[in-house]
Amino acid sequence: MSGVQDLNTPMLALQGVHKRFGGLHAVNDVSFQVAAGSIKAVIGPNGAGKTTLFNLIAGNLPVSAGTIVFQGQEIQGKKTHQVARLGMARTFQNIKLFHGMTALECVMVGRHVQSRSGFFAGMFNLPSTWKEERAIRARSLELLELMQIADLAGVEATSLAFGQQRAVEMARALASEPKLLLLDEPAAGLNIYETAEVARLICAIRDMGVTVLLVEHDMSLVMDISDEIVVLSFGSKLAEDTPANIQKDAEVIKIYLGEDDAG
Ligand SMILES: Nc1ncnc2c1ncn2[C@@H]1O[C@H](COP(=O)(O)OP(=O)(O)OP(=O)(O)O)[C@@H](O)[C@H]1O
Ligand SMILES: [Mg+2]
After folding, report:
1. Ligand 1: residues within 6 Å at CB?
2. Which domains does the chain have, with CATH numbers?
3. What is the pTM of this model?
4. Which of 9, 66, 171, 238 has the most Cβ atoms closer than 10 angstroms to its Cβ?
């Protein structure tokens, strides 16, 4: 059955995942699963290992130990493009959009991960790719519409407002038609209205059938939209539960209040 997903297979399963940077255990023996069709959040103080965990899952960094199973297939040790082709996409804590490209072009680049002819054939403008190129453009526009920024398709992406750039990044990630989307702090730097909009967009993405794993510091966003929450502290999993139970968890309250005291 390897590589074949049945109904009981989680979308993602981490088992004993570990990442060392020299003497630092940035991710320490972390295990959890993400159910298909759910929204799961990873929370924890600054430096807890959340982004490192995403880098391990998406193949940006090799694990020091442990297994990562995506749709029934082990992916630890695979490169980012291999993981992407299996159906995983991500956004970054620091927005990474290309200078000199319109919002639409940024999304089209994301689409080329899955296209038959690929990004380079597209660049050389081969006749065989024209039809595919039109389809990619149409789908990319649909995704900008879904993110409610279709009117900005022709605007240079890096000149857009911060919240709009995040929407472009999400559309670009979705353009590869992922089964699992990793979002690293999608609401960072956004005001309360933009954050509410991001919450709505993430739910819309889930409703499209895309499983979502997100890292976020905005607790109201996390509590509102997550089915389950994993709490990391100094690289280790401190708790994993529903939002209602996490809010009552004494250990979790302590690390967050401790952070406030220190700040
Ligand atoms: N490439 C690296 N080399 C060495 N140390 C690293 C590297 N990347 C991260 N670290 C360290 O690993 C720890 C976890 O960092 P990470 O960025 O994963 O935290 P985080 O939970 O995402 O924090 P934040 O909420 O601030 O984004 C930190 O102590 C960080 O300094
Ligand atoms: Mg981070």
Report:
1. 21, 24, 26, 44, 46-52, 93
2. 1-87+178-263 (3.40.50.300), 96-177 (3.40.50.300)
3. 0.90
4. 171
- Find the mean pLDDT for residues 114-138: 68
Ligand 1, atom 8, lies closest to the CA of 52
pLDDT in tens, 150-176: 999 999 999 999 889 999 999 999 999
- Answer whether residue 143 shows pLDDT above 70: yes
Angle of helix 103-111 relative to helix 162-174, nearest 10 degrees, comes to 30
The sheet that has 211-215: what strands, in order across it? 88-90, 180-184, 211-215, 39-43, 228-233, 236-241
Residue 111, classed as helix, strand or coil, is helix
> How far apart are the C-alpha atoms of 254 and 115, rounded to whole Å?
48
DSSP symbol at 102: B
